[in-house]
Write a structure and sequence with these properties.
The structure is a single chain. The protein is an alpha/beta fold. It has one domain: TIM Barrel (Alpha-Beta Barrel), CATH 3.20.20. It is built from 16 helices and 16 strands. The chain has an eight-stranded parallel β-barrel, surrounded by four helices. It has a two-stranded antiparallel sheet with strand order 1-2. Strands 4-5 form a two-stranded antiparallel ribbon. A hairpin with a 2-residue loop joins strand 4 and strand 5. Helix 1 packs parallel to helix 2, helix 4 packs parallel to helix 7 and helix 8 crosses helix 11. The structure holds flavin mononucleotide (FMN). Flavin mononucleotide binds next to helix 9 and helix 16. Belongs to the NADH:flavin oxidoreductase/NADH oxidase family. Keywords: Flavoprotein, FMN, Oxidoreductase. This is FMN-linked oxidoreductase. InterPro entries: Aldolase_TIM, NADH_flavin_oxidoreductase, OxRdtase_FMN_N.
């Protein structure tokens, strides 16, 4: 192995697909769509990432139902004209131009779809496993804001559960038809499927709730139904949270859910954390202040990944959140905490991060000391400091950080 270390080594997934190195551009919503339709700017952004030396590139979350979006500028897979299908073909081929795998992240935002995002009627409620609203704190003011922005979701009927399963299958078919190598099912960050996993947001007593395994059942059914139509060589993976979102359930319950998903033969499992209520995917394990240990190890969710590894020695694991240096990445790979390194904000800042920062395929050697980047501290809007609602404050700070890096993605179009 050369001085680049493990991060530069290829990886073969159970589907047979090969990553030329371990670096994966993580899913980041680009907000470059209108009414769910991709723009030519979106095509351009992926052309740029496609030139960056990544082992694999994940799209930002693509909505499976245009009625419910994470933001009004999200992409959705419905109502595709031939021009639109052509754009997605171009996105896939832009990603694959230098050999990166093209993975589409597919998502339903559930109760985290704000008013005005999606084509649902003004009075139509969001859908969720149970009628549990997002909780940003107990104050009346905060509860009123949540009510106006997200409302109290409606508990999904069994028919609605089946509809959502079918929508995920349609999204996977669309990804395959447009030249993607696989899909990754978003079951993290407080969106619909992660809310099914958590007993805080899933209080159902039917087949889709009540035990950790039953709470994972909708994802199991989605994986099975997708597999039936896409065949064995198409990658089907899942992004889920570490035990952070489910403190009530305990990490044993979350690990049992991992067992259930692994039994379905996922190509790999991506581990992240956080939700709108507590955006740890952005801030790390111990928000708001990170412990020295977390800072040193970079990876926010490494402990949980190691616990998963203990139960599933051969599972391909992707870990996302906090990676900034080649040394940190190699250390996580060597510890067996993961096989693939998910990179978010640095990829929005430096699209060719694998080449220009990590030193993959670089003309000259890049030393360990040079191979990394620190992200600038994002200035929070002034009023946040004065907000007397700590939970809402944390959520808005996470939102400001996401907006800042979202803009960096959109700035990629200009270069
Ligand atoms: C602008 C932006 C958009 C994001 N959109 C998504 C998304 O669509 N799907 C997802 O799973 N995670 C999303 N994330 C979270 C990232 O995938 C990742 O988990 C997070 O940024 C932590 O990784 P990092 O420390 O390398 O940035 C987003 C993050 C940012 C900054």
């Amino acid at each position: 192995m050369n001085q680049l270390g493990e991060v530069a080594t290829p990886l073969t997934l159970p589907s047979g697909l090969v990553l030329s190195n371990r670096l994966v551009k993580a899913a980041m919503a680009e907000q470059l769509a209108k009414n769910g339709q991709a723009s030519s700017d979106l095509v351009r952004v992926y052309e740029r990432w496609g030139q960056g030396g990544w082992g694999a590139i994940m799209t930002g979350n693509v909505m499976v139902d245009e009625k419910y979006m994470g933001s009004p500028q999200d992409t959705a897979i419905q109502n595709k004209s031939s021009a639109e299908i052509e754009k997605w073909h171009k996105i896939a081929s832009g990603i694959k131009a230098q050999g990166a795998l093209a993975l589409m992240q597919i998502n339903h935002p559930g109760r985290q779809s704000p008013a005005g995002a999606g084509s649902r009627g003004f009075l139509e409620k969001n859908v969720a496993p149970s009628a549990v609203p997002i909780n940003f704190g107990e104050s009346i003011v905060v509860k009123t804001i949540v009510k106006l922005l997200f409302g109290t979701p409606a508990e999904m009927s069994i028919i609605q559960v089946q509809t959502v399963i079918n929508q995920f299958v349609d999204a996977a078919k669309f990804a395959q038809q447009t030249g993607f190598d696989g899909v990754t099912i978003h079951a993290a960050h407080g969106y619909l499927l992660s809310d099914f996993l958590s007993p805080k947001s899933n209080t159902r007593t039917d087949d889709y709730g009540g035990t950790p395994e039953k709470r994972a059942r909708i994802i199991v059914e989605i994986i099975r139904a997708i597999r039936e139509v896409v065949g064995a060589t198409f990658s089907v993976s899942v992004k889920m949270n570490s035990s952070d979102q489910q403190h009530d359930a305990g990490s044993d319950a979350v690990l049992r859910q991992v067992d259930v998903l692994v039994a379905e033969g996922v190509d790999f499992l991506e581990i992240s954390g956080g939700s709108y209520e507590n955006p740890r995917m952005i801030g790390g394990d111990e928000a708001p202040a990170k412990s020295e240990r977390t800072q040193k190890r970079e990876a926010f969710f490494l402990d949980f990944a190691l616990a998963v590894r203990e139960r599933h020695p051969t599972l391909q694991l992707m870990l996302t959140g906090g990676f900034r240096t080649r040394a940190g990445m190699n250390s996580a790979l060597i510890s067996k905490g993961c096989d693939m390194i998910g990179v978010g904000r640095p990829a929005a800042t430096v699209p060719d991060f694998p080449c220009s920062v990590v030193g993959i395929e670089a003309q000259k050697e890049v030393s360990d000391a040079e191979a990394g980047m620190q992200l600038e501290k994002i200035k929070e809007p002034w009023f946040l400091k004065h907000l007397p609602f700590p939970q809402l404050q944390r959520a808005l700070a996470g939102g400001a950080e996401t907006m800042y890096y979202g803009q960096k993605i959109r700035d990629m179009v200009k270069a």
